[in-house]
Specification:
Length: about 350
């Protein structure tokens, strides 16, 4: 079976990483895959099978404003339509609203089925074009992949062909014992610090650091200088410089997770937080807000704490319990690894094969 996958870029973000994993797994299972992506404005940072053919199309408008974006959207769709006719796939997988709206326009009248693949919580507010795509245009897709049961409940009877497919864990599970430091680790892009809740964890840390002076709050991630400096200014205002570390870009995240004492996810919004799953796979006890419902679906009892969204005091108390009890941290560490084992690439591939088969049988 020939699949055409339309994804705006493979340079950064969870959607690109998961799509690359999908390409590798389905290709290994015998699917003939070709990709349409913007590798003109973006480099390809994730590993793709070498035999997969990549078609380059620009997704970015050179001009700003809604009208310019709409005109660019139709220009891109025209180029995608020519490629669809040339590739002549059996099925198209359109990633995120960016990929789907262009593919929807490009594919009109061809009769080729499309599965929309959405990697963002449906509670998240987005720009007008993405909102229109996600809350209206998806009804014309032959299938819709979403991330969580919470989104499934939120959508209700809307989009009857929707299905929850969890993102896969690409790290091998931690096998050996490691030496863990007294650190609370936060991971994310500083350019979206408000979504990631970095200001919230700093507020929490301003209370905890005096009670646990031998612990450090650690940030891993990059961003524009002004956003990184803003978060650093919050740390300075609260006199937390000596107990807070900024690591910047970390190339070996697996090792960082395996030596961190606790992982904290203070995000206000998430789709399916891969950082949480990765941290659990390396034995990090976790404390997370129940953003998007994914945290509750990922963290089994005894692997960490799932906190009601926005309950800062409970988040702080959960961190305090783990920081003050090494035996509990060790027990939660083992349960975290077991909890993460439910999200293998093989399970992910099986779920996609079922969805592809069912889409053709509709």
């Amino acid at each position: 079976m020939k699949l055409l996958i339309v994804n705006d870029q493979f340079e950064n973000g969870g959607a690109g990483r998961v799509t690359a994993t999908m390409c590798c797994e389905l290709s290994k299972r015998g699917y003939d895959i070709e990709i349409i992506t913007d590798n003109i404005n973006f480099s390809i940072s994730y590993t793709l099978p070498k035999h997969i053919r990549i078609h380059s199309v620009e997704f970015i408008s050179k001009k700003t404003g809604t009208l310019a974006r709409v005109l660019s959207l139709f220009d891109t769709a025209k180029k995608i339509r020519l490629l669809i006719k040339n590739v002549n796939p059996d099925l198209i997988l359109a990633i995120q609203g960016n990929g789907y709206i262009r593919t929807f326009i490009a594919n009109r009248g061809t009769g080729i089925p499309i599965i929309a693949v959405d990697h963002t919580s449906f509670e998240r507010k987005m720009d007008i074009i993405n909102t229109f795509t996600r809350h209206y245009l998806y009804q014309f897709a032959d299938g819709l992949s979403i991330l969580t049961k919470r989104d499934e409940k939120l959508l209700g009877k809307k989009y009857p062909h929707k299905r929850v497919i969890y993102n896969p864990l690409t790290y091998p599970l931690l096998q050996d014992k490691t030496t863990r430091e007294k650190t609370v680790l936060c991971v994310g892009r500083f350019d979206i610090w408000k979504i990631k809740g970095f200001d919230l964890i700093i507020d929490i840390w301003s209370d905890l650091h005096t009670r646990y002076p031998d612990w450090k709050l650690v940030f891993a991630g990059t961003g524009k200088d002004e956003t990184v400096n803003y978060i650093k200014s919050l740390v300075r205002e609260r006199h937390l410089d000596y107990s807070t570390l900024f690591l910047g870009q970390v190339n070996d995240m697996k090792t960082l997770y395996s030596h961190s004492g606790i992982f904290a996810l203070p995000s206000r919004i998430e789709g399916f937080p891969m950082v949480l799953l990765e941290a659990m796979s390396q034995g990090c006890p976790c404390v997370a807000f129940n953003v998007g419902g994914a945290s509750e679906e990922m963290i089994e009892k005894g692997a960490g704490y799932v906190i009601t969204d926005g309950d800062i005091e409970s988040f702080k108390n959960a961190l305090s319990e783990l920081m003050g009890d090494e035996d509990k941290r060790n027990a939660y560490s083992q349960k975290a690894i077991k909890s993460a084992s439910r999200f293998t690439v093989e399970c992910f591939g099986d779920a996609w094969e079922r969805m592809i088969k069912d889409t053709f049988q509709q």
